[in-house]
Design brief:
388 residues; mainly beta; 14-stranded antiparallel β-barrel; globular
Length: 388
């Protein structure tokens, strides 16, 4: 009887340990599925031009003397909502994505004749992407922001920018876009059409024109390096404290500084893994222009700003470096070109108007279909800075 009870006790003990081990083993295997198709990304970017002389005989030019620009940006974008819609047979046909975006930029126009001004722009926005599950996707962006001359709180001004764009993926080697965007890239405020065309595969050689943002030829140099030759505009409009008395007719305490330039350069993107990317670019800054706008004179003007001073500058050189870090799990998008198009879309439209591309760290593999490319095409619209 003792041995029977002893063996029964051992059996129960072994059984309980086995069940506990199995429970723990199963618990370890439980992995929460990813909720989104986009990773959270944090990026930084630095841009600088060479110094040039202001040679006109205007009063303001003589006071400013020379011009050079430094620009630093940090920002993020993160998915906050994803909803999939299925057919009755559980085949995914469409999805909606919401992303939260934010950025902080400091633009420093350096004039040798006056004190230094550091013009900041802080933006928090939201983006929505609707992927039809077929060949088309919609992109909507709303980015309210505040701009000011740092150190002068009275210069704070609140504005907003927005875009609505439709992307159609014709096949794995072509897509077209059309829409409307409010932009300050050309040193003023405009509401203009958006037109785009990509010829060539997203992960291979391609020609990409996105008016008014950029025109580029892109191609890989091995597994972890990509390069591009590009031409694009860059600029913005910023609040500027009139502490140097550049304008005196209306005794404005605040004026607006506008700048624009056209860049012709080349860039190398180094992606050692899917989490960290680094890029380096350089080239020629041409067709430069700067303007100053009276706030009092333009009060109530909802269209193009009228300047009291404007000057075109000679060309110069520029250098651009940046770093991107991505983290978080994402849902699989294998065999879905629509999602690849949106990811590529995401890479070209961060909040604002400084028009920088933080790079695409997750390119599709070569075995893809038309549905895959659509979301990737849209990611290049989300991850390019456009600080307004």
């Amino acid at each position: 009887m003792f041995f029977l009870r002893y063996h029964l006790f051992l059996y129960c003990l072994v059984l309980s340990d086995t069940m506990l081990f199995a429970f723990n083993k199963d618990s370890i295997k439980v992995i929460k599925p990813a909720k989104h198709y986009f990773k959270t990304s944090i990026y930084s970017d630095f841009y600088s031009t060479s110094k040039r002389d202001l040679i006109s005989e205007k009063f303001v030019s003589k006071k400013l003397k020379t011009y050079k620009l430094n620009q630093s940006i940090i920002g993020f974008n993160m998915p906050i909502y994803t909803k999939n819609y299925y057919k009755k047979d559980s085949t995914r046909i469409s999805n909606i994505h919401l992303l939260l975006t934010g950025s902080y930029a400091v633009v420093s126009p350096i004039f040798s004749g006056i004190s230094n001004h550091h013009l900041s722009k802080t933006s928090i926005g939201v983006r929505m992407i609707y992927n039809s599950g077929k060949s088309g996707s919609w992109f909507l962006d709303f980015s309210p922001f505040v701009t000011q001359d740092n150190g002068y709180n009275f210069t704070k001004r609140y504005r907003a920018a927005y875009s609505i764009i439709y992307n159609y993926t014709c096949n794995k080697n072509a897509s077209i876009r059309a829409g409307l965007t409010r932009t300050f890239t050309f040193g003023n405020r405009y509401f203009i059409p958006y037109l785009g065309l990509r010829l060539g595969s997203v992960n291979g050689f391609n020609f990409n024109i996105q008016f008014p943002r950029s025109m580029s030829i892109n191609f890989p140099l091995g597994k972890n390096v990509r390069t591009s030759i590009y031409a694009k505009p860059q600029g913005g409009v910023y609040s500027f404290a009139n502490t140097d008395e550049l304008y005196y007719l209306n005794n404005d305490k605040i004026i607006n500084f506008g700048r624009y330039e056209y860049l012709l350069g080349s860039r190398f993107d180094f992606n050692s893994n899917k989490l960290i990317g680094f890029y380096l670019g350089a080239g020629i800054s041409s067709q430069n222009g700067i303007s100053l706008f009276s706030e009092a004179y333009n009060k109530g003007n909802n269209g193009k700003l009228n300047y009291f001073y404007a000057e075109k500058l000679s060309g110069g050189l520029f250098v651009n470096i940046g770093l991107t870090i991505k983290f978080g799990k994402t849902k699989s998008i294998y065999n879905n070109y629509n999602l690849y198009d949106a990811i590529d879309y995401n890479n070209s439209m961060e909040a604002g108007d400084n028009n920088i591309n933080t790079g695409n760290l997750e390119l599709p593999n070569k075995k893809t279909t038309v549905k895959d490319i659509n979301l990737s095409d849209m990611q290049d619209l989300i991850e390019t800075q456009d600080l307004y």
